[in-house]
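Technical annex, item 7. During the second reporting period the consortium partners agreed on a shared format for inverse folding records so that results from different sites could be compared directly. Each record opens with the tokenized structure and is followed by the designed sequence. A conforming record, contributed by the partner at site C, is shown below for reference.
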């Protein structure tokens, strides 16, 4: 998704509001999750957001969202945010985020989603890390015994 930063979307420093960027990321991630699952999808969580670089008024912003891993009914979506220099046209990574979506039927009940097969080295890295992030989230929420989090334990062995 590519869009322009307009005056009504900026803070007093003339940079894009963080909340506006979160909404753009949510929309892009929702589209990616819907395309993959071919189902209605709902945002289950925002797992990580890094506001690494301010996005100034007038910037061209591109939000790229891609499924990094699927689980039974959920999908982790990795989002990269790029800004384009107005003069040179050179793109630079500004921010990133990780969202989780759940596919649901018309009554709101979770439904299974198709698996993904990572192709590139980056896709493989994100795919492997997704399981660790999921296990960490489940342990912190009290939904998984830490002794069962094999991927997390492997980091410390």
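Designed sequence (site C submission):
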């Amino acid at each position: 998704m590519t869009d322009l930063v307009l005056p009504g979307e900026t803070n007093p420093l003339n940079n894009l509001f963080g909340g506006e960027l979160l909404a753009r990321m949510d929309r892009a991630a929702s589209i990616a999750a819907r395309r993959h699952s071919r189902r209605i999808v709902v945002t289950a969580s925002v797992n990580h957001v890094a506001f690494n670089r301010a996005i100034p008024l007038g910037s061209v912003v591109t939000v790229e969202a891609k499924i990094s891993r699927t689980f039974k009914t959920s999908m982790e979506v990795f989002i990269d945010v790029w800004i384009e220099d107005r003069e040179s046209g050179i793109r630079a990574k500004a921010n990133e985020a990780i969202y989780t979506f759940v596919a649901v039927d018309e009554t709101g009940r979770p439904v299974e989603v198709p698996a993904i097969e990572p192709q590139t080295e980056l896709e493989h890295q994100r795919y492997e890390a997704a399981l660790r992030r999921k296990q960490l989230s489940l342990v912190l929420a009290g939904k998984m015994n830490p002794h069962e989090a094999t991927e997390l334990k492997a980091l410390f062995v």
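Residues 18-37 form the longest helix (20 residues). The helical segments are 18-37, 121-140, 150-155. All partners now use this format for quarterly exchanges.
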